[in-house]
Structures are given as C-alpha cells and as structure tokens.
Amino acid sequence: MNMTLRLAEYKDLEAVVAIYNSTIASRMVTADIEPVTPEDRMEWFLGHTEARPLYVAEDENGNVAAWISFETFYGRPAYNKTAEVSIYIDEACRGKGAGSYLLQEALRIAPDLGIRSLMAFIFGHNKPSLKLFEKHGFAEWGLFPGIAEMDGKRYDLKILGRELS
C-alpha cells in the first residue's frame, strides 16, 4: 500500500475523527464507547505541537487513510524525552502493511522530535496491535489489569515501550 505522510492540517480533522470512530465498535482499540465529533477532539487536535505532532497518511488518491499521533507523556519535565505514540488506520487499509509502514515512520521521526523513549497503550486483547509493536522492538513495560470496562466486561491495558537511543 502506497502512502504519503505529512503533518496534519485543520482540514484533516474530520477524516482523523472518522478513522478514530471506526475503531470504537470493536472495543479493541480505544476506551471511548460512543463516537466523538470533530468538536469533541478539537482540544486534542490543537494540542499537537511541533515537538509532539500529528501526522496523516494519504493513500494514492490523496485521501486520509491513517494517522500517527505523538503526545506528551504525563506532562512533567522529567518525562520530556518520552512520548506516547498512537496509530489509527482506516478500515479499508487495515491488514495491508499500513501499520508497519506507519510505525517505522514514527520510529524514524521520533529522534528528530527529541524523543528517546516511545510508549504505546494497547488493550491486552488487541492481539494485532500488540504483535505489530512487538515486531518493531517494543516490549511490555507495564500492565493495568481489568482497568477498562466496556459492555459489562473488564479489559487489561498494556503499556509497551521502546528505547530509541
């Protein structure tokens, strides 16, 4: 799958939210249980900075097909060289190598952002994402057992991490 990565712009917010919302029903990717609106995600979108950017990946037709978010971890100065990375992919593009491409790009970009450690927060039952991150050198750094409750079921949240330098 051919993709072109670029910094997100305001015009991308609707597509970013649509991709995010497409993951909610599966209960595998996000702890949101109802769809969100672009207005709901505006503060998050605007919170991305030059040091912690949001990228979109366009398909060969110029449509936003995925996104990568770098976010500050925990908001304390001692953690400034650590970031959380999130990758979301349009349903039509899943299972076609997009995840590997995007994670490789995140690993390539991160050092230029001053990031030394990357973390990902992934549900324990999200085997495809766990496998993807482990394939790219991430290891389990933490576990929150049964922390998320959705539809009357409890789910574990795993923290995966990787040192970049």
Structural write-up:
InterPro entries: Acyl_CoA_acyltransferase, GNAT_dom. By secondary structure, this protein is of the alpha+beta class. 21% of the residues lie in helices and 34% in strands. A hairpin with a 5-residue loop joins strand 2 and strand 3. It is globular. The chain starts with a strand and ends with a strand.
Give keywords.
4 helices; globular; alpha+beta; single chain; 165 residues; Aminopeptidase
Roughly how many Å is the radius of gyration? 15 Å
Low-confidence stretches: none
Helix content bin: 10-25%
Note the gap between the termini. 29 Å
Give the structural class.
Answer: alpha+beta
- Strand order, sheet with most strands: 1-2-3-4-5-7-6
The profile of the biggest β sheet is: 7 strands, mixed
Order of helices and strands: EHHEEEHEHEE
Could you tell me the number of beta strands?
7
Beta content comes to 25-35%
CATH fold assignment: Aminopeptidase
CATH superfamily, by name, is Gcn5-related N-acetyltransferase (GNAT)
Main CATH class: Alpha Beta
Discrete helix count: 4
Q: What is the CATH architecture descriptor?
A: 3-Layer(aba) Sandwich
- Shape, principal axes of CA atoms: globular
pLDDT averaged over residues: 96
Task: Give the count of structural domains.
Answer: 1
